[in-house]
Write a structure and sequence with these properties.
Blueprint (H helix, E strand, L loop, with lengths): L1 H8 L3 H9 L3 H8 L5 H13 L3 E6 L7 H21 L5 E5 L11 H18 L4 E3 L7 H14 L5 E4 L5 H8 L5 E5 L14 H17 L3 E5 L3 H13 L8 E5 L4 H9 L4 E7 L4 H10 L1 H12 L3
Parallel strand pairs: 1-2, 1-8, 2-3, 4-5, 5-6, 6-7, 7-8
Helix pairs in contact: 1-12, 5-6, 6-7, 8-9, 9-10, 12-13
The structure holds dihydroflavine-adenine dinucleotide.
Dihydroflavine-adenine dinucleotide binds next to strand 4, strand 7 and helix 12.
């Protein structure tokens, strides 16, 4: 219930204004978001890379309503990738992109988002790195998979994301488990109806395991995005059973969540990539992080109370 309420609040302009202006919100944001600028994100990325981790950097923003905004976001990614190229991180620093930020929801949005994503993929290629297309609301999944297919014609290393809570997740994984195909598997962070998604925790976890089996047995490059200790253990066991080398898959976690575990897996020889978001449009991202964990809501309520 609380999860659904927070996810509903992530779409509410009124709640947004209260949260954004509450005095203690900043400290909650700082826990999950690298900062407002690309320089902030790169400073965090640099520290993580020095510690043997990898990063995927996300410029926060979603649900773009004007074409000019989509262009601005695309240009921001191009500049970010120029800086990644200069730093010489190669594939240790890639970028994650939301197609709704690139205009997917505008009239003729799929074409606009594809064109913008192509520019970002080209900049990533120049920086010798890759792009992963985040997966958003269930209503955008088919369109995002179509854009992915188009992009992969020219940029075969473009990463996909599959949300295990979708009833069709296992089928999507089977379709994507080809040679060289980079697929991030996550549980899913949005509100989705029972008709398209499993809603119970147990059912989502079981689906995650089924998807993981498909991806780990396939010929692609699985990216296991979870902080769940049981699922991380199962991923490791599947890698051993399938004789997968450490460099043939990776674990992924969010900035600010289980940093000790990120380092423990790295020390064991695993590849770990941290999702590092930055930018001023942190509201939707923050609300999804709060929805994932009841303990985080304590911070949230204190932040609201301090407004009164
Ligand atoms: P679960 O929520 O069960 O958490 C397991 C444990 O992890 C918790 O018990 C707690 O210890 C810790 N934890 C998890 N979330 C926490 C939080 N917010 N604060 C503090 N501790 C927390 N989703 C999506 O729909 N589309 C996408 O493109 C992506 N992309 C993505 C990339 C990466 C790298 C990650 C790690 C995750 C995503 N997600 C996502 C989000 C994902 O769908 C999911 O909502 C979160 O990862 C939380 O699910 P867990 O698998 O961690 O399990």
């Amino acid at each position: 219930m609380l999860r659904q309420a927070l996810l509903a609040a992530s779409r509410s302009g009124g709640v947004r204004r209260i949260v954004e202006t509450a005095p203690y919100t900043r400290s909650v944001v700082r826990r999950f978001v690298a900062g407002e600028t690309a320089a902030d994100a790169l400073a965090i990325a640099d520290g993580l890379i020095s510690d043997g981790l990898m990063v995927t950097i996300d410029h926060l923003g979603e649900d773009t309503v004007e074409a000019v905004q989509a262009k601005t976001i695309t240009a921001e990614y191009e500049r970010l990738l120029e800086r990644i190229a200069k730093a010489g991180y190669g594939s240790r620093a890639e970028v994650s992109v939301k197609l709704t930020a690139l205009g997917q929801l505008l009239p003729d949005g799929e074409r606009t988002a594809l064109e913008n994503a192509r520019r970002i993929c080209a900049a990533a290629r120049n920086a010798r790195t890759t792009v992963t297309l985040d997966m958003e609301e269930h209503t955008t999944v088919d369109s995002t998979l179509r854009v992915l297919k188009e992009l992969r014609q020219d940029f075969p290393d473009t990463g996909a994301v599959i949300q295990a809570y979708l009833r069709r997740a296992e089928e999507y994984c089977a379709d994507l488990a080809d040679e060289g195909s980079r697929v991030r598997l996550c549980k899913g962070a949005y509100n989705a109806p029972d008709s398209v998604a499993f809603t119970g925790r147990d059912a989502v976890d079981k689906s995650y395991v089924r998807c993981m089996r498909v991806l780990m047995a396939g010929r692609g490059y699985p990216m296991m995005a979870t902080h769940d200790p049981r699922l991380i253990e199962i991923a490791g066991a599947l890698a051993v059973l399938g004789d997968r080398r450490h460099d043939s898959f990776e674990y992924q976690m969010l900035y600010g969540i289980r940093p000790n575990e990120q380092r423990r897996l790295t020390e064991l020889g695993g590849q770990v990539r941290v999702y590092v978001p930055y930018g001023a449009e942190w509201y939707g991202y923050l609300m999804r992080r709060l929805a994932e964990r009841p303990a985080n809501v304590g911070f949230f309520l204190r932040s609201l109370a301090s407004k009164a």
